[in-house]
Amino acid sequence: xxxxxxxxxxxxxxxxxxxxxxxxxxxEYVVFGGAAGTWYDGDGVADHSQRxxxxxxxGVRCTNCPKADDAIATAQAAYNGKLIAVAIHDSSVFTTPxxxxxxxxxxxxxxxxxxxxxxxAGSYPAAIVSRTPATTGWDLFTPTSGIxxxxxxxxxxxxxxxxxxxxxxxxxxxxxxxxxxxxxxxDGELTLTLxxxxxxxxxxxxxxxxxxxxxxxxxxxxRDVITDLWGLDVEADGQTGTARFVxxxxxxxxxxxxxxxxxxxxxxxxxxxxxxxxxxxxxVQ
Amino acid sequence: xxxxxxxxxxxVLCGSMMAQNAKLPENVTLKTLxxxxxxxxxxxxxxxxxxxxFWATWCKPCNKELDAxxxxxxEWQDETGVKLVAISIDDARAASRVKPWVNGHEWEYxxxxxxxxxxxxxxxxxxxxxxxxxxxxxxxVWQHTTYTEGSEEELIELVRKVAKGEPIE
Amino acid sequence: xxxxLITLLALLASTALMPLMAQGIxxxxxxxxxxxxxxxxxRDTTIGASEVPEKLLMNARADILYTNGDxxxxxxxxxxxxxxxxxxxxxxxxxxxxYFVSYKTQDFGITAGYYYEQFGNGMVLRAYEDxxxxxxxxxxxxxxxxxxWDGVTFKGLVGKxxxxxxxxxxxxxxxxxxxxxxxxxxxWSEATTRVTLGGSFVSKYEEDESIxxxxxxxxxxxxxxxxxxxxxxxxxxxxxxxxxxxxxxxQDPNIMNDYIYKNGNALWVSASYSxxxxxxxxxxxxxxxxxxxxxxxxxxxxxxxxxxxxxxxxQTYAFLTMYPYATQSTGEMGLQGDFMYKFKKETLLGGxxxxxxxxxxxxxxxxxxxxxxxxxxxxxxxxxxxxxxxxYGDLTVEIAKKLSNNVKFAFTYGxxxxxxxxxxxxxxxxxxxxxxxxxxWKLNKHNVLRFEAEWMGSDSQYDKEVDDKRCGDWIMGLxxxxxxxxxxxxxxxxxxxxDGVGNYYNLSVGYNKGAMRLQVGxxxxxxxxxxxxxxxxxxxxxxxxxxxxxxxx
Lengths: 285, 169, 553
Hints:
The complex is a heterotrimer.
Chain A: H1 2-18, E1 30-32, E2 38-41, E3 52-58, H2 65-79, E4 83-89, H3 107-115, H4 118-121, E5 126-129, H5 147-155, E6 161-170, E7 173-182, E8 190-198, E9 201-202, E10 205-206, E11 212-213, E12 217-218, E13 221-225, E14 232-233, E15 243-250, E16 262-270, E17 276-283
Parallel strand pairs in A: 3-4
Antiparallel strand pairs in A: 2-15, 3-5, 6-7, 7-15, 8-13, 8-14, 8-16, 9-12, 10-11, 16-17
Chain B: H1 2-18, E1 29-32, E2 37-39, E3 50-55, H2 60-80, E4 83-88, H3 95-104, E5 110-113, H4 118-122, E6 130-134, E7 140-145, H5 151-163
Parallel strand pairs in B: 3-4, 4-5
Antiparallel strand pairs in B: 1-2, 1-5, 3-6, 6-7
Helix pairs in contact in B: 2-5
Chain C: H1 3-22, E1 29-41, E2 56-68, E3 71-81, E4 93-104, E5 108-115, E6 117-118, E7 126-127, E8 129-130, E9 135-136, E10 139-146, E11 152-163, E12 166-180, H2 181-184, E13 193-205, E14 218-220, E15 225-237, E16 240-249, E17 264-275, E18 278-288, E19 331-343, E20 355-371, E21 380-402, E22 407-418, E23 430-444, E24 447-458, E25 474-483, E26 487-496, E27 503-513, E28 516-525, E29 528-532, E30 535-539, E31 542-552
Antiparallel strand pairs in C: 1-2, 1-31, 2-3, 3-4, 4-5, 5-10, 6-7, 8-9, 10-11, 11-12, 12-13, 13-15, 15-16, 16-17, 17-18, 18-19, 19-20, 20-21, 21-22, 22-23, 23-24, 24-25, 25-26, 26-27, 27-28, 28-31, 29-30
């Protein structure tokens, strides 16, 4: 009988180890999987600016991250709208939320962090500008300095594609429209990624001196990638002068998010290299 | 293609040269007709010859062979002490029918199930029927595929030789 | 990996091992088997043997097994220099298809490399191969067993499955425990009732992927881990036996069930009674959404993790196998009864040598289901005991009798009902009556003649668009002559007499010595189980010259 008990115990432990099984609730069988974008011929884009897209990988328990916030805010003021930044809380040890403080992590942000090697490098804060490659891997850096040289390298070039985005909240859904205009011939397949970020979130943040500031304001925090993680395919032939327009509906936002403080960011990237060609943002109206 | 054929031929040749005294595999998992898991080392016959016959319920020649041996099995046992071990390669489709099948056919053999075909692979069985003859030391001294009426008479000739310790060509 | 490199390594390894063995440096034994099948085909659309640009099609394989005490290792070389008809063209190529090393004792065993395994009846896990059907879902990874006490076996495994010349992405993990109660509980060790209990758990892990739902812009939220479990029992008391297994599977949207989220389950029960000369067996089975593969988007026969056996009997005569039934793993219910009786010698029905009677019948239906939705929903509901449309039914009665010392006779009547939906096309049920006579006449010690005559009457309508091999009423004759200990020749013809299509003639010559067998045939062959010259094997459809060589050493 003792043996039978042991056998039962081993089987039970084993089944817990081996019997992994995901349970999906019925209302979550289907999820938003990349916008239902319908492409039309566009009217072109008036503003031909080349902008830079800065991803900042951060965490509420990361001591030096507030310094990076300051440096990025300074740079954004200097570039006058040509530097668009998003703060991404992945799943590193620095992102575990404090009690009674909101959880800023997202699965999408974590997937980007892992794909770009931020998570495995393990050093926070970390940033990358327009997903620029380095000699090997990605050009990741600590964004307390060195932002300007990287942004200059992008924004001082003429834009190959002009981009503009607008969004409107009506009947519970955010309707997003993106205009693209090819200013040069572009080879290769392109994707368009849309994301939603929120300003003015108050959450506890560890400060450089080690103290916890409970009323720290987090800006441009990634809330959700609206399209598929790596974007939806751009239906265009890539010839100079081509103008395209796509409309996307989005209703998967969380009730806790304050849409009046949200921005939509749209960026076009090369499907193969993931490098960002141009980016634009707008408020949710 | 030529290379392939040459290689295969070489393998066969080398193989046949030294295949003389392979033993019965010892630690292959089999099941008894009562559902108990055992190792192939349970196949023993106190230093007397053993016939191993791979078969399946859907294999007509196999059943003909085992039926034919049934008629003379008692005499064979009395004369040579030989034991026939029938290993069924039926899978889950027919495995539960094997025990009634054996009883219904009045087979007095020791029968095991090889549902996972571990024994079949360990003994390089390709088609059924496939019969092995083991001497008193458990060495495979002879093997044969196919059954035609009357070939059990050759088998007993060989068993007699083995029982007396004579070599088999 | 580079296939040429693998080939070279395999050749080097096998040729290098040989002399070592022969000289006994390492001790142990090398055994193995080789098989070569080839066909030179010409076109004939009436049997599904399509034209092939290559003149010669050949499948070849060699298994080499090295055993030394508790240690063993094996290699398998496979070559498909244009795979034979009936084999997936993705097999084309050659190389090392299987390798393993294993260490096995009474209590403990571990295998690294490719392995085959089955938990219980295989309802949640069965990695196996059928070389004649071109099936091989071997797992590549580790497999262990451990027997802490007599009558108790634990098995554990982790691996990925073979798919043609590649390895599927899905990771399979499994654990199985089996307890023979009579060995474990002392009081019951002498009991006449033998009870074995078992349980298994399997989990498959696969990365997320984008699969569109029916709602534009929305995709399926796919489970990365899909679990399945089963419990089973085997009870034997004298001539009585009862076996049962119940399996369950978690949410597993996949291409076979069109991505629905319903849980799967299957129940199989077998009860039997037997005594000398008599046996009866009744089996029941219910399968509901149990197709379980390690890659959710894989179609076809490959990458199954589990195995749900067909409940009908495997038939051997040609016309009884013309409408073969295949398990519908998405859902079916079946019942099979089997009865065997031996009329004793010197009785009225038994005659001088006794008479064998064998009756078998099975019926398989669809489940009674209520549609809930398509992809991305729970799919359907099924009532547990309700039945849907008829899929398949059969009844065979076989009488076998020894007429004299040299003549044996078997007569079979068969009735088959077949629903073409099983093969994926709508149509009326086919009803077939089959008669078979089978006579074996032993002329003298080394000369045996066998005759087989078959007739099939069928109401199936010849429809070239749907299926061009079935035409209606058939007759068949076969003569087989075994001579000089090792040789056989056989000639057969199948003819569809009311439509005058299909004329399947075949001539075969075979030579057999020990474990070596060579067979050459010419003619038109329908795919199926072929039992001539004393062995049974699955053969592909062919038209032309075929040859087959097998050898074990």
